[in-house]
Amino acid sequence: MMISTKGTYALRVMIDLAQHEDEGYISLKSIAERQKISMKYLETIVSLLNKGGMVQSLRGKDGGYKLRKPAAEYPIGEILRLTEGGLTPVSCHGFSEGEQECQNVNNCLTFPMWQKLDTLINAYLDKVSLKDLLEGKV
What is the pTM of this model? Predict the structure, then answer.
């Protein structure tokens, strides 16, 4: 499993919004400058976070983005699954909901190991919150 720049940048954006939550709505320009992310790529990421219900937006002169809820209520796993589409360790059939199970799953000696690893990854990332990252508690 490899987390893409979309996932890592989404975490950086969420952390930035949490660090500046007392400032109200934060402009994309401010985030882009602080995080050294291009505006075009940032727009794509923030759009995804907005559609996923993670941030709320306000248009206009004093507009921008802010977190919808407190940083402690954002599991890192949730943010990464939204941006990455999943966190499965292998591209095996049957890991994602609604995905057809591999025809070889009953004969595959490695499948149980991958399932357990998938469970461990998701459980760990769901225990770590945005607030934990802010406070260095990982």
Answer: 0.88
